[in-house]
Amino acid sequence: MSRAAAAGAGGGPAVEIAKCAAVPTAAAAFADVAFDRLPELYDRVFSQLFAALVGRGIEPAGAPYGLYTRVGETVDVQIGVPLGAALVEPFALDEEVEIRGFELPAGTVASTVHVGGYDGLPAAWQALVAELRAAGREAVQPCWEVYLDQPQPGGDPRGLRTELVTLVR
């Protein structure tokens, strides 16, 4: 999906509305996760997932993502990567984490790109939801983040790009 460069109508982030097909993925699913535990889980999965897939002859078909099926005081999240075809056989990433086949959902989605550190994502999500409301749309779950750039140890997070995507009605 390409992204519009201009600011949204409400002065917020540039938002694109598009219809998307389902995309098969390989991901680890976690339930009832405290927000402060998310960085640990993302690091745990992403540090092992790519090598585990390639070792099974499976090539990722896009940038890694985190899909939130429930957001509240805690979250339910899938952490994974898109694939070119469905993952047929689940496998253990480590003693506690299983990788299974899932899908990024089909439907009408709104998306925008946040540029900056991950600490700016909550405000970016709020701006996206506000822009959708101003356009007469409603964000519905699930929503997901696509991590377009890999953070580097000691690197400057101000240039990191994260695509925010949500189903809309």
TrEMBL record:
**Which SUPFAM superfamilies did the record assign?**
Probable bacterial effector-binding domain (SSF55136)
Q: Which SMART domains match?
A: AraC_E_bind
Residue ranges annotated for the AraC effector-binding domain, each copy included: 13-169
Superkingdom of the organism of origin: Bacteria
Instruction: Identify this protein by name.
Output: AraC family transcriptional regulator
Q: What is the lineage of its organism?
A: Bacteria, Bacillati, Actinomycetota, Actinomycetes, Micrococcales
